[in-house]
């Protein structure tokens, strides 16, 4: 069987929308519809329930999709394995992160070592990363929240304190440590639900029985420091962001007297999928990079205590 109909079916099933699938495939919508119709004719059963222009994956389609996902994943793994056998210069690695700032120092080092490797980057929330891993769209994820799944494995890259950032003229700017109670009613700059900063802020305030006042939320965690520096509010930032936020906009970092105010940055992959040599080399470099950063941060804190 030609693989093209299977890839068309996989995308149509994922979106349950022919137009969206056609747009991603960059082909005409009628071509996708005809391909799906031929596949259904060959299989002898309908794969979708159709109601006017709307389609829904039926029980036949759901069962077939599980097999198609597995088969295509195996073939893609085989392609990557052959590329590895032919040499690292033909390899590729796809990585999902919550913010591209995570890779600003790591990626140039990797590119310098392996300039011929095809690197693809995606920005996603924890839920998005989990879906991308399960679908085989990415090889690795760097996440600040646990990613659930029986086949997913993770290694901790960094565990760091989360700080409170405030504008220089803020009433608390001359303090070293603040409590959550002192922040009730303060305008918070944070991310949308699904990102680790929002999950942490919601948890801390809920456990303390306090109200979190969100005045700005977005999808780019790295922009939080700039918005705080502009005087729009306060917010939670990882310790590793101190240098970058200071360069872009002046902010003051304070310790927050609250239990569990830290983040754990982890590298996550699928244990049941083939991990290319390019991805393995990136994993090794990421572990080494963040260990060096953790050692540097620890030395800096020791020197200032």
Query: Under the CATH scheme, which class of the largest domain?
Result: Alpha Beta
What is the correct CATH architecture of the largest domain? 3-Layer(aba) Sandwich
Count of discrete structural domains: 3
Low-pLDDT sequence parts: 298-305
Number of DSSP E strands: 12
Helical proportion, percent range: 40-55%
Which descriptor suits the 3D outline? globular
Query: For the CA atoms, what is the radius of gyration?
Result: 23 Å
Q: What does the main sheet amount to?
A: 8 strands, mixed
CATH topology of the largest domain: D-Maltodextrin-Binding Protein, domain 2
Q: What is the CATH superfamily label of the largest domain?
A: Periplasmic binding protein-like II
Total helical segments: 10
Order of helices and strands: HHHEEHEHEHEEEEHEHEHEEH
Approximately what portion of the residues adopt beta-strand conformation? Answer: 15-25%
**What is the mean pLDDT?**
87
Describe what this molecule looks like in 3D.
The chain has 305 residues and is of the alpha/beta class. The chain has 3 domains: 3-78, Arc Repressor Mutant, subunit A; 90-156 and 264-304, Periplasmic binding protein-like II (D-Maltodextrin-Binding Protein, domain 2), CATH 3.40.190.10; 158-262, 3-Layer(aba) Sandwich (D-Maltodextrin-Binding Protein, domain 2). 44% of the residues lie in helices and 24% in strands. The chain is built from 10 helices and 12 strands. The protein has helices at residues 3-15, 18-25, 29-43, 59-86, 106-113, 126-135, 196-207, 224-229, 242-248, 277-304, and strands spanning 48-51, 54-57, 92-97, 118-123, 140-143, 152-166, 177-179, 187-191, 213-218, 235-238, 252-257, 262-270. The strands form 3 sheets. Strands 3, 4, 5, 6, 7, 10, 11 and 12 form an 8-stranded mixed β-sheet that branches. Strands 1-2 form a two-stranded antiparallel sheet. A two-stranded parallel sheet has the order 8-9. Strand 3, helix 5 and strand 4 form a beta-alpha-beta unit. It is globular. The model is unreliable at 298-305 (pLDDT under 50).
